[in-house]
Amino acid sequence: MAIARGRSRRWTARSAGICGVRVQRTYPGLAVNDQLEIGWRIGERWWGQGIAREAAMASIPWGWVHTGFRCILAWTTRANTRSWGLMERLGMDRRAALDFAHPRYDPDDPLFAMIVYGMDRPT
Question: How many CB atoms lie within 10 A of CB 14?
């Protein structure tokens, strides 16, 4: 289900995107491997409506309750200011020591250099 633009939001049969947490096991040898990751993909049509933030704010507590991980990580490219801005609004901070070169992209690709943000489990 997705929220459509308009004076009042209404439900449609179109998906706005996805969001959730998962244990990252795609990149053996990288510091982000075997860590709890939060990620989102929101269709451009729905950008700027707070959907990613709302979904992430629901996913983070779920991650704390249902996993034993000490932190939740997220990553994006330096150029994706919208995503890392959201990471900061969610209370995440830069974890530059965990930045990595994405193994699926060539060094000249804009998606090659990934920056990492994280948040620690509340005490």
Answer: 12
